[in-house]
């Protein structure tokens, strides 16, 4: 049973818990190969700093995962989380047809999560998402332990893909 009184710790996946750098090559050329990019996600190595922070947060908080990955990646994403031994938690994903910038989609979900619950922290690597969340009053931990390629940053903001 979920304890609805515990604060929430909200974690991004790509660049925060999962090292997606090996698949960014699919975005570096045109046209971008989104199917190959997401198909390679199950092979992402974990990012030790993010995984450790997530496990630590689970001691005091209910962990929630908030990703820009499309809904069609749910099964692979849940399997990856389980394989890493990460805490169980709700997984919020982008609708398959949602192409809004990550800073818009994630903030909308974050606000919904914060209705009636304390959001103790959002951990994300996307600077624009972090800026928007901070401006909305959320405590943010900027995941600066992985380097996102320029193509991925562009995709997050302009194409609403991750």
Topology of this protein?
Layout: E1 8-11, H1 34-39, H2 48-57, E2 62-70, H3 74-83, E3 90-94, H4 102-113, E4 119-124, H5 127-135, E5 140-142, H6 150-159
Write a structural description:
By secondary structure, the chain is of the alpha/beta class. Helices cover 35% and strands 17% of the residues. It has six helices and five strands, in the order βααβαβαβαβα. Strands 3-2-1-4-5 form a five-stranded parallel β-sheet, sandwiched between helices. Helix 5 links the parallel strand 4 and strand 5. Helix 4 crosses helix 5. The radius of gyration is 15 Å and the shape is globular.
Q: Which labels suit this protein?
A:
162 residues, 17% strand, single chain, 5 strands, globular, alpha/beta, 6 helices, 5-stranded parallel sheet
Summarize it.
The chain is 35% helix and 17% strand.
Widest sheet: strand ordering: 3-2-1-4-5
Morphology: globular
Element order, helices and strands? EHHEHEHEHEH
How many helices? The count is: 6
Rg calculated over all Cα atoms: 15 Å
**Low-confidence parts lasting 5 or more residues at pLDDT below 50?**
none
In total, how many beta strands? 5
- Strand percentage, roughly? 15-25%
Q: Tell me the distance between the termini.
A: 31 Å
Helix fraction by DSSP (H/I, runs of at least 4): 25-40%
The pLDDT mean sits at: 90
Q: What does the main sheet amount to?
A: 5 strands, parallel
- By secondary-structure content and strand pairing, the structural class works out as alpha/beta
């Amino acid at each position: 049973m979920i304890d609805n009184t515990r604060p929430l710790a909200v974690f991004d996946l790509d660049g925060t818990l999962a090292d997606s750098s090996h698949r960014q090559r699919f975005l570096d050329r045109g046209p971008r190969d989104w199917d190959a990019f997401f198909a390679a996600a199950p092979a992402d190595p974990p990012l030790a700093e993010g995984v450790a922070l997530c496990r630590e947060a689970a001691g005091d908080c209910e962990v929630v995962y908030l990703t820009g990955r499309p809904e069609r990646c749910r099964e692979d994403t849940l399997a990856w989380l389980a394989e890493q031994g990460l805490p169980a938690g709700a997984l919020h994903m982008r609708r398959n047809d949602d192409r809004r910038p990550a800073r818009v989609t994630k903030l909308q979900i974050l606000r919904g999560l914060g209705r009636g619950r304390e959001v103790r922290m959002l951990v994300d690597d996307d600077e624009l998402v972090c800026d928007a969340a901070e401006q909305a009053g959320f405590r943010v931990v900027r995941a600066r332990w992985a380097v996102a390629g320029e193509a991925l940053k562009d995709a997050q903001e302009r194409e609403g893909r991750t």
